[in-house]
Design brief:
heterodimer, A: 256 residues, five-stranded antiparallel beta sheet, globular, B: alpha+beta, Immunoglobulin-like, 4 domains, 32 strands, 23% helix, elongated
Chain lengths: 256, 631
């Protein structure tokens, strides 16, 4: 009873619905969706964007608002900020098909194409689950981890090969998913993902304007990068999908 | 000897597999205008390329290729036969020379020369055929007629109105039989449906008429059929015969229309008539056998002329109309517009290429994708009949101020007029605003016209999904964190539970592993069971069973706790072991006294009172409790 009660309370708290948005937030959201729906001009879309951003400025974190904001930005032609907010929405609503579709679409339209190493391609095929959402991998790892212990517990009473095999299988899957999720979490912690939001920017070898450019041309809005050094004032060191890195102005990139 | 045999077999093997070519013609004797088939059979291999006939005094049209596979005694062989229909243009001996054909390895093989005797047709002045065909080169879709006229000399009065053909003994008229090779159509030409053409000739089962190609007519009784008789239209003319003598003739005519389809020269075979005719003899009407062949005709179909060919000519030959539709008509710069060009009319639609809009006047203000989707327009009542073709373009206005989609020019060659005609669609009014939304073309999917039925539609995979507008969705959300309750319940709790369970199980097994300790642990349970048996005996008033049960419970408990033998332990031994175990003397004395009391009561000849038994039971409980504390 002493253990059961806190667990029960925790379970109830976990399943309890979150507090609804305030009336002001709801009104802003309705207004913004209506304006966005009827918008025919860039200025009208800007009004919708302003309202969505006011909602977020109140401290509300909501994937649907981020998603709609991304849509509005995309319609104004700002593919970088659109992708930024869709990626933020994806973090709050992992697995949402509309968000995933928009992100895929935005990636197909990215102006900058980077060639990845063939070894990375092979790894992506072999470790196919690494492309799954982080939440899916993590919860999958936990589930198989639980199954592993269940098999081991049953095996204490009765040693049969099926339980041994089951435990091994669950252990392998849990390990694969867990390691994959761990790698992603560590990468996100060390090198948080970001998006180039400036229309275009030159990536430089060093953190000063006179430094030589890394690429033959500027990178454009919507390019996804990883921030690997965020401690140099107005300059940020970013890594590109082809593992090349360089420095860009802080205002040209936004962390997801 | 053995090596010689092997050498022979080795030499024979290639001979079996060697390529062989053979040319044949059938029939070997024909009349001028008739058609024979020329075949080249290739066996034992393949030619590097299909054979071609050299030019000569004949019209030849290829009939295609047939392939036959033979397996004899497990040996597989294949023969490929190339066939031509050849119509000689002159009488005499037509020789098709040896053809040099190369196989895949470049080795040359020669056919043997093939000769066909072409005899001049009989020139009977009383019965002859005339045929007229296209007198000059025609164009695809251009119609021409092949007219066959059968001239039969009229009899003299009083039989002048009678058809000059005999009757058999049953009184039935026997007219000549016609063999018309183009009844089933002509390769490379379009013509009316065969059955419809025959029905138009009004075949009869009875009466009088020519037979054609030995066509049968069902008479309606089961499967009975009879030769169809064709009473062709008859007129009386006076003209000169083949011999130059002017006579009265009955002219029977048969006409069939053709249209050009493919480019080339296509022989239209000569007609053969065979039968009997009547003629005026010196004294009476006589009859005689006739066999006559008409002149041969051929149709040469040529492509539309180069002269006067407009730039927008799309390869269409026929008579067409063009119309255009577009949607949407209120757009911004860069917005896509679906422009549909529909072409219908009379002609062949297979080879109509889509007009290149980017090269047409007025479309320089648009971004045009010149690779439209094409689909056939079919007759709503007959889906197999193609009545037009539709091209669906995507265009985008490149600037403001455009007020219309210009007329689209579609040029075709009209074979009836024998000249090129350019059809123009009506301009479509259009409103183009300034493009205020960047990349709008990727966001806005225009409403297109309803797709044609049966067209396979594929997802474009373009554009973004709709906004969310449910207020209920506006709740605070937190990003994913790995260290939440799921981690506690699924990641931490299971190993802890497993560890606890495994530890308990191990302790349990360890305890059960020592029989002495297991016996000592179960001592009180056994004593309790003994007391229960004593309680039952007490309730039954059976002293003989009561006291042994009590003694068993007490002594058994001590024996289990101190690992003594189950039976045969005396009171003195018991006292000594209890003392060794550190039990107080008072309890030892009480226990020994109680056991002695049980022995005495068990063997008491006068029995024991019920209240004494009750007291002894209570005493046993008390002693067991004390012993449990002490041991």
């Amino acid at each position: 009873m002493r253990i059961t009660a806190p667990l029960l309370l925790a379970a109830i708290a976990l399943g309890a619905p979150a507090a609804p948005a305030s009336p002001d937030q709801a009104a802003l959201f309705s207004e913004a969706t209506r304006i966005a729906r009827d918008a025919r001009t860039k200025e009208e879309l800007a009004e919708a964007i302003a309202r969505y951003e006011r909602i977020l400025a109140t401290g509300l974190r909501n994937g649907y608002v981020e998603y709609n904001l991304g849509n509005a930005y995309f319609r104004t032609g700002d593919a970088g900020r659109a992708l930024l907010h869709w990626r933020r929405a994806e973090r709050l609503l992992p697995g949402d098909p509309q968000i995933a579709r928009n992100i895929d679409f935005a990636r197909t339209r990215a102006l900058d194409k980077f060639e990845t190493e063939s070894a990375a391609d092979v790894l992506a095929v072999v470790c196919f689950w690494h492309a799954w959402p982080l939440e899916t991998r993590w919860h999958g790892a936990l589930l198989f981890f639980t199954c592993l212990w269940a098999c081991l517990a049953l095996r204490l009473r009765r040693r049969v090969w099926t339980l041994t095999a089951g435990a091994c299988a669950c252990g392998i899957v849990a390990c694969a998913l867990g390691v994959s999720a761990g790698v992603t979490m560590r990468r996100d912690a060390l090198a948080p993902p970001a998006v180039i939001t400036a229309e275009q920017t030159v990536v430089r070898q060093g953190n000063y304007e006179e430094s030589e450019p890394v690429f033959t041309g500027p990178v454009h809005s919507g390019t996804e990068v990883l921030i690997i050094d965020d401690t140099r004032g107005p300059w940020v060191r970013v890594e590109f999908p082809n593992k090349k890195d360089g420095w860009v102005r802080r205002e040209t990139v936004e962390r997801i | 000897m053995r090596y010689a045999l092997l050498a022979c077999l080795a030499a024979a093997a290639p001979l079996q597999a060697a390529l062989q070519v053979q040319a044949t013609a059938e029939p070997a004797r024909i009349y001028v205008g008739q058609i024979f088939e020329f075949k080249i059979a290739v066996s034992g291999g393949e030619l590097a390329e299909a054979p071609e006939l050299p030019k000569g005094p004949y019209a030849a049209s290829p009939m295609g290729t047939a392939s036959q596979l033979y397996i004899v005694n497990g040996r597989r062989s294949q023969t490929v036969t190339y066939t031509w229909r050849i119509q000689p243009r002159q009488e005499g001996t037509l020789t098709i020379p040896a053809l040099a054909l190369k196989d895949a390895s470049g080795r040359e093989h020669r056919t043997q020369p093939v000769s066909v005797t072409v005899a001049a047709a009989d020139k009977d002045p009383l019965f002859f055929l005339e045929i007229s065909g296209p007198e000059r080169t025609i164009y695809p879709e251009q119609e021409f007629q092949v007219a066959l006229t059968i001239y039969a000399a009229c009899l003299k009065p009083p039989n002048a109105a009678r058809d000059p053909f005999p009757t058999d003994r049953g009184g039935r008229a026997v007219w000549p039989a016609l063999s018309i090779p183009w009844l089933d159509g002509v390769e490379g030409l379009l013509s009316e449906d065969r059955d419809a053409f025959i029905q138009r000739l009004n075949p009869q089962a009875r009466g009088a008429g020519f037979t054609i190609n030995r066509l049968q007519l069902r008479t309606g009784f089961f499967f009975d059929s009879t030769l169809a008789l064709f009473a062709l239209p008859r007129t009386k003319v006076s003209r000169a015969g083949p011999d130059g003598v002017v006579r009265d003739y009955f002219a029977y005519t048969l006409t069939r229309s053709f249209r050009g389809k493919d480019y080339g020269e296509f022989p239209i075979g000569a007609v053969v008539a065979e039968g009997y005719i009547l003629f005026d003899g010196p004294s009476e009407i006589e009859y005689r056998k006739v066999y006559t062949v008409s002149r041969a005709v051929a149709a040469a179909v040529s492509p539309p002329p180069q002269t006067g060919r407009p730039a927008s000519f799309s390869g269409a030959v026929g008579s067409f109309r063009a119309r255009a539709d577009a949607a949407p008509l209120n757009v911004r710069v860069g917005d896509p517009i679906v422009l549909t060009l529909a072409i219908d009319g009379q002609g062949t639609f297979d080879h109509i290429a889509p007009p290149a809009l980017s090269e047409q006047a007025g479309f320089e203000k648009f971004k045009v994708y010149d690779q439209p989707t094409a689909e056939a327009i079919t007759d709503p009542h007959d889906k197999t009949r193609v009545v037009g073709k539709r091209f669906v373009y995507r265009i985008r206005p490149a600037e403001t101020g455009i007020d219309e989609i210009p007329a689209i020019e579609f040029s075709f060659f009209d074979p009836a007029l024998e000249k090129y005609v350019t059809a123009r669609t009506e301009p479509i009014p259009l409103s183009v605003e300034e493009g205020k939304t960047l990349l709008a073309e990727d966001i806005v999917t225009p409403k297109t016209q309803e797709g044609p039925r049966g067209t396979k539609l594929e997802a474009t995979g373009r554009g973004i999904a709709a906004d969310y507008d449910r207020i209920e969705a506006l709740v605070p959300q937190t990003p994913f964190t790995p260290w939440g309750l799921p981690f506690f319940f699924l990641g931490v709790l299971p190993p802890l539970l497993y560890a606890a369970g495994a530890g308990a199980l191990a302790a349990h097994r360890r305890l059960n592993a020592d029989p002495v300790r297991r016996r000592a642990r179960r001592a009180f349970a056994r004593a309790h069971a003994g007391l229960a048996a004593a309680r039952q005996a007490l309730a039954a008033g059976a002293a003989a069973a009561f006291y042994p049960a009590l003694a068993e419970a007490a002594s058994g408990f001590v024996a289990d706790r101190l690992n003594l033998p189950e039976h045969g332990v005396t009171s003195a031994e018991l006292a000594a072991r209890l003392a060794a175990a550190g039990v107080q003397d008072a309890l030892i004395s009480a226990t020994v006294a109680f056991l002695d009391r049980c022995d005495a009561a068990r063997f008491s000849p006068g029995g024991v009172a019920a209240d004494a038994m009750q007291r002894d039971y209570a005493r046993a409980q008390e002693i067991l409790r004390e012993l449990r504390r002490a041991l």
